[in-house]
Amino acid sequence: MAHSPDPSDHPARYPISKPLPESTSPLAAIGTRLHVLANGLTVLVHEDNRFPLASMRLFVRAGSVHEAPEQAGISHLLEHMVFKGTSRRLQGQAAADIESFGGELNAATGFDATMYIVDLPAEHWATGLDVIQDMIFNASFAPEELESERQVILAEMDQGNDDPHRRIFKSVQERLWAGTAYARPIIGYPETVCSISRDDLSAYVRSRYQPANMTLVLCGDVRSEDVLKQAELLFGHLTNHGERHPINIQGSNSVPGVFFNPDSSWEFPSASRIAVEQGPWQKAHFFLALPIPGLRDVHSVGLDVLAHMLGGDRTSLLYRRFKYELGLVDTISVSATTLDQVGMLSIQAQLDAANVEGLWSGVIRVLADLTPEMFSPEALDRAKLNMEDSLFQAKETLSGMASKLGYFQFHEQNFEAEQLYLHMIRTMDAGQLQEIIQTHIRPERLVCSIFTPTPETTTVESLHTALEQIWPDATPRSSQISRQTNSSQPEILHLAPGRTLVLLPDRSLPYTALTMCWNGGDLLLPPRDQGLSELTARVWTKGTRTKNAVAVQDFLADRAARVAAGAGLEQFHLSVHFPARFSPELLGFFQELVQEPAWASAEVDRAKQEQCAAIVRAEDSPVGLALRNTFPFLFPKHPYGYQRSGTPEAVTTFTQTQIVSFWDRQQSRPWVMAACGDLDREALLDMATNLAGQDAIAAPAPRKPQWGAERELLLQLQDRNQSHILVVFPLPGVGSEQTPGLNLLREVLAGQSGLLFRELRDVRGLAYSVTALLWQETLAGFLAFYIGTSPDKEEAAIQGFQDVVRNLAEHGVPETALHRAQNLLWGDYQRGRQRLIARAHEASENLTRGFTLDHSLQLIEQAKNTPANQLSTLIQEHLHWDKAYLIKVRP
After folding, report:
1. C-alpha distances in angstroms, 811 versus 324, 620, 729?
2. In this structure, are residues 64 and 74 in contact, taking their beta carbons and an 8 Å threshold?
């Protein structure tokens, strides 16, 4: 269950009256059937047998903008309450029914809609439909559950106020969209949520959850005829109460009218346009926004293109200028968010407080001088390619396909509207961009919020002064400018001792994913060098012998390719993902990156700044602070206890020489390269053979870690609302014969219908977030219980954990919980490996650890055959409170 202060992806932003070009997306069109029931419910079925899975979405035109002001938050509260039981299912049983088959049940509330989500094995798709229909239209709204859920949502509001990203969005939202329902937070306000009654919820379902307001989407290994028959059976009897509700986004239901007019003055009072707020942050947060029209406006596609060129990736204008060249920011990005009736073009950055005014002046100057000529033709082509690529990437998983098709059908009334969007991207030119800039990039519409730990360095007055000097007012701009107008078997090839190539062909999409994984990682570091392996991974992809960092970014963006490197406790890896048609170029680049990385001094300095900023960001979050300190607390004086990112003091002292020395040790270790997708076998074999070179040097065997003597760690973050608790139970390592049972035990405890969630959240109302975490490396592991709760409920939360463990030890694991966990393991595994890069990474990691290619699946098969009494044995052996470690982050 979720709400998001930042609207979900909306890829379709264009008028639907344009002629539809010839389809270029057969994967979405073939096997897709659209049907409208007699009562107005739209049913979209996409047959796709690539995986034994089904993914369904129910979109309902019942978002926060449809609420009366005095009931703000009712959409989100209703989304929570439908999980709390029906006339046929007890509290929590809806999620349990789905998870018992190995599926997932979730929901999300947005501004314009609420979406219900089910992903599960294809053979059980009918149960998924039944659960969705029952939980919504037969919800019991029990008074005690309503009161409990109110407390959960109030805790969720506290969490949002602790998060600077959510909080700054809210600050901009309420001013940019002032006077409309879009100005209100999706989650509502404490006073409105507390005033909503059971009768209000029932009335809201009758009012908004009409079949004509809903779109049902199902993708996967199903037959359209069967789905339509079942949809008719479950939803066909529903009726519409009066006319279909029109969208009215004004703040009061009595005020009609059009929200956005590009020719209106749209001026804000000077005092409200710019806000500076001091808070308990270690970094400054910058959020500048301009209002733009909704998703059906003629300019929406061009605004997407403009946003991508301004700040969509590392080749973008603002990233290059303020991150790479001037070093003023840790992160910066630009996005065009378009909703049904409104939108915003936003520039967001995180930086040191001392750099805020420099960034403000620089960004304002870019916007004041903005013209299409500031972007090269290559930048425009690159933006088009990468935007097109993002649409195709959504089709890699059934979940992504269901969400994308559903979005187009629900918001654009045409699931094939993607083709028009692609057509408009491809034909975007400088003339169209000029019109968009003149119409929408205007200073009198600007809204900005800045959160800073040091308010004395930045004042609203100084920002206004800079704005008036650099970009004093808008020149009248006309909006009438003319326009210029199927898989085969895996193959394992042992090239040399310690050098292995794995090929996993899958031609369902024209993409290739490649991962190369070495033994080593932090095991190769002495204690004084903690953080060096991560720094090496950061610098690694920033240049080769023939390409500097900028050239690498351009090279990848021009081919819709992505490269990533990472360092772990025992492994080091490099991955790349690209359209298969670029294989010759990308394989050559990959080989050069392995054999001749640049390790440029300037990039080392930038990477050190990035890593230090990431450390600060992590410690600004209660959960991040807890996790950064967990491993050093549990495993002192052992590589498992290293702080993965190091400390800012240590990272700033690392040199290029140290990085090169570490890489020399790392590259000589055993590796496995795995490629998945549309493969050029001979080219991959040639490249891997060239990289194999001499035999590998065996990686150092990790010594067995000693667990820490101290049992309790107390951390503190001031001016926060909640306490965060981790209870850690020591376990054996990942190669243990107990691993299948431990995976199963974790699933029994976690999830919406898991024992911890149901007892501590649903029954006792102690928290919004509660779960179980399992971590295992070669020689050690742990099972951790996590909860975020109010400080006055800390002892009750710990007691709740103890009660769950005691009940399991005395009575064992219920068969229903065991069955659910076994199916969840299988379902999570199948969902997780849909992406090509996930399968490549799985193969390389398994073989690097010395396991078989199908090791992950073997663990699941063993877990499926694990009886309840074996879990009882694991509980009795490992879940001892006198051996547990307690970690708390208090406000």
Report:
1. 59, 41, 20
2. no
Residue 266 has what pLDDT?
A: 41
Q: Counting every residue, how long is the chain? A: 891
HEC-encoded secondary structure of 722-790 = CEEEEEEEEECCCCCCCHHHHHHHHHHHCCCCCHHHHHHHHHCCCCCEEEEEEEECCCCEEEEEEEEEC
List CB contacts of 658: < 8 A, sequence separation 6 or more: 529, 532
CATH topology identical between 491-692 and 712-890: yes
Condensed to tens digits (0 to 9), the pLDDT of residues 845-864 reads 999 998 999 999 999 999 99
Residue 53 has phi, psi (to 5 degrees) of -135, 160
The span from the CA of 701 to the CA of 731, in Å, is 19
Indicate the CATH number for domain 491-692. Answer: 3.30.830.10
pLDDT tens string 477-487: 333 323 233 44
What pLDDT does residue 730 have?
97
Convert the pLDDT of each residue in 658-680 to its tens digit: 999 999 999 999 999 999 999 99
| pLDDT at residue 52 tops 80 | yes
CATH pick for 270-395+408-470 out of 2.50.20.10, 3.40.50.300, 3.30.830.10, 3.30.390.10: 3.30.830.10
Q: Quick one: CA torsion of 272, 278, 283, 288, rounded to 10 degrees?
A: 0
Q: How crowded is residue 90: how many other Cβ atoms within 10 Å of its Cβ?
A: 11
CATH class of 712-890: alpha beta
Contact between residue 116 and residue 150 where contact means Cβ atoms under 8 Å apart:
no
Give the orientation angle of helix 532-540 with respect to helix 601-619, to 10 degrees. 120
| pLDDT confidence of residue 551 | 96
In CATH terms, the fold of domain 32-235 is: Cytochrome Bc1 Complex; Chain A, domain 1 (3.30.830)
Q: Phi first, then psi: what are they for 481, rounded to 5°? A: -65, 140
Question: At a CB cut-off of 8 Å and minimum separation 6, what does 493 contact?
Answer: 500, 501, 502, 503, 685, 688
Residues 577 and 590: their CA atoms lie apart, in Å, by 11
Contact call for residues 127 and 98 (beta carbons, < 8 A): yes
Domain boundaries, the chain: 32-235, 270-395+408-470, 491-692, 712-890
Q: Which two tokens stand for residue 601?
A: 């001094």
User: Among all chains, which residue has been given the structure tokens 């509290």?
Assistant: 91
CB proximity list for 607: less than 8 A, separation 6 or greater: 535, 538, 539, 542
Tell me the C-alpha distance between 268 and 289, whole Å.
Answer: 13
Tens digits of per-residue pLDDT, 678-726? 999 999 999 999 999 766 676 566 788 999 999 999 999 888 889 999 9
Burial, 428: exposed, middle or buried (Cβ in 10 Å; 0-12, 13-18, 19+)?
Answer: buried
Residues 6 or more apart whose CB falls under 8 angstroms from that of 176 comprise 183, 289, 291, 344, 447
Beta 274-278 vs 447-452: how paired, if at all? parallel
| Confidence band for 415, pLDDT divided at 50, 70 and 90 | confident
CB 201 within 8 A of CB 114: no
pLDDT above 50 for 506: yes
Q: What is the pLDDT of residue 695?
A: 63
Structural contact between residues 198 and 141, judged by C-beta atoms closer than 8 angstroms: yes
**At residue 162, does pLDDT exceed 90?**
no
Q: Which residues pair with 322 in a beta bridge?
A: none
Q: What is the pLDDT of residues 114-124, one digit of tens each?
A: 999 999 999 99
Mark out the alpha helices in 325-484 (DSSP H runs): 356-368, 377-393, 398-412, 418-426, 430-440, 460-470
Strand, helix or coil for residue 485: coil
- The radius of gyration of the chain's CA atoms, rounded to the nearest angstrom, is 27
Instruction: Classify residue 829 by burial, with Cβ atoms within 10 Å: 0-12, 13-18, 19+.
Output: middle
CB atoms within 10 A of CB 241: 10
Give the pLDDT band of residue 298 (cuts 50, 70, 90).
Answer: confident
